[in-house]
Specification:
Layout (H helix, E strand, L loop, with lengths): L1 H32 L11 E3 L9 E3 L9 H5 L6 E7 L4 E10 L8 H5 L5 E3 L14 E2 L1 H4 L13 E3 L26 H10 L2
Parallel strand pairs: 1-7
Antiparallel strand pairs: 2-5, 3-4, 4-6
The structure holds iron/sulfur cluster (2 copies).
One iron/sulfur cluster (SF4) binds next to helix 2.
Length: 196
């Protein structure tokens, strides 16, 4: 008899626990039912990349002094700097420059250390191709400026979650002048200047 009562007790305890877990799960579901969808209808809508986004690298041929610092700081020695020594001017002359974005990890070291600032990270992230060899960009392809999401008339640009006003989760139909949550970079700089 005691054994039977113990079994009933255990069963009741487990049933109560199961009901509690189901309730917890459903509370999350009901909470989401009250929210509006935040799906971005790509490619008709696109998120505006953040200010420090590390996308495809842009290269300015005329600024490059063929020093190869970018190659040395790259974790995989990726940039190919093809130069020859000009005996008349006694300077290096750059012939070709290329970066293979099929291998690049977008760490940004080359951009950070280039002494002439001829490399920069752009907001371009749509690099998919059918052939990975097409991702080996020469200096002409690297010199192309990316098409901005905000300049594309075919696309509705949307703000990323971090750039939405406080408490806002839905990036659609926001007033253009609505302020994002937190301090703006210029406000932080101002505060730093005034605290000096
Ligand atoms: S570090 Fe800059 S200047 Fe030097 S080779 Fe690379 S891209 Fe050219
Ligand atoms: S972003 Fe990083 S991995 Fe890519 S070329 Fe520059 S240093 Fe190399």
């Amino acid at each position: 008899m005691l054994k039977f009562l113990k079994q009933v007790g255990d069963y009741t305890k487990e049933a109560v626990q199961a009901a509690k877990y189901i309730g917890q799960g459903l509370s999350v579901t009901f909470d989401h039912m009250q929210r509006r969808p935040i799906t971005v209808q790509y490619p008709y809508e696109k998120l505006i990349p953040s200010e420090r986004f590390r996308g495809r690298i842009h290269f300015e041929f005329d600024k490059c002094i063929s020093c190869e610092v970018c190659v040395r700081v790259c974790p995989i020695n990726l940039p190919v700097v093809d130069w020859e020594f000009n005996k008349e001017t006694k300077k290096k002359k750059l012939n070709h420059y290329s970066i293979d974005f099929g291998v690049c990890i977008f760490c940004g070291n080359c951009v950070e250390y280039c002494p002439t600032n001829c490399l920069s990270m752009t907001e371009e992230y749509e690099l998919s191709t059918y052939d990975r060899h097409e991702l080996n960009f020469d200096n002409v392809a690297l010199g192309r400026l990316p098409y901005k999401v905000t300049d594309d008339p075919m696309v509705t640009p949307l703000r990323e979650l971090a750039y939405l006003p406080k408490g806002e989760l839905y990036p659609h139909d926001l007033p253009a002048n609505s302020r994002r949550a937190g301090k703006l970079p210029e406000e932080i700089l101002e505060e730093l200047e005034s605290s000096k």
